[in-house]
Amino acid sequence: MLFASDKPxxxxxxxxxxxxxSHTGVEEALFDIFLRxxxxxxxxxxxxxxxxxxxxxxxxxxxxxxxREKAQLLDPLLKGRLAEVALHGYTHLALAxxxxxxxxxxxxxxxxxxxxxxxxxxxxxxVFGVKVRLFVPPWNRLGISTAAVLREEGLMISGxxxxxxxxxxxxxxxxxxxxxxxxxxxxxxxxxxxxxxxxGCGNVVGTMIHDYDFVExxxxxxxxxxxxxxxxVSAWSKMRNVRRMLVTDAILGNDxxxxxxxxxxxxxHQRLGxxxxxxRLLANAGAVYWNTRQARRLAxxxxxxx
Length: 306
Fold this sequence. Notes:
- The protein has helices spanning 24-37, 52-58, 75-79, 110-128, 144-152, 183-197, 226-238, 247-252, 258-274, 276-281, 292-303; strands spanning 9-18, 41-45, 48-50, 63-65, 83-87, 134-135, 156-157, 204-209, 242-244, 288-289.
- By secondary structure, it is α/β, with parallel strands linked by helices.
């Protein structure tokens, strides 16, 4: 018989913004680490990116398709069943998301969204030779109409659990919003609270990675060196009772109603947001996608804290 402390935490890793414009050198290093360390990674690919050099030189938007030759970087991981390809929007252009004009939102006609999703998905399936079953919304945001299209197109989602009024919770989903440096703490929190509440089955920690996270990318925001990242990955690999898997496998392995679980986690985030003491005492709890029972218990605890 397994006790709650023995039930594994599910750890998913997602690399975002793999595209014609992303840093190939960083990606070669990351994919090599995942292969050698046997770390499954869901790779969110942008089918068509805005060519920055063309924009700067001519002042016009020119879309650059994902290069077929670059797709070969992922071949060893795909062959080893350590990777899957997700559709990461269409171009990922920044279209004033604060005004709800993100790439996929209710401001965009439904049939336009459907056409872009179908074209982007088909292009990635042709380039990589795999089935694309997952959608990763740019900036982790999408409208209710987009959710309906994704459901109709048979796609799952890895975005964020949000508390918006009318939010569509029925999509099969697994959020992936923990930064690299906080991953180990989130995994430990998932284990700790599982022991406390004796209901630890199926809790998920999702690590989100970009090329610009790394010093080697040349971007000013990069704060982590590739060698330092491998040290962190090594530490993740040595953690007990952690099961690593691809995002779609984590979603399909969930035996709870998707909407019920999403609502329970959203309620927890609301309670934590309203409680100063709750955020301190339940540090890192918000970085875990809890099973329904655990999310409700943590939300109840946070509700008692000022």
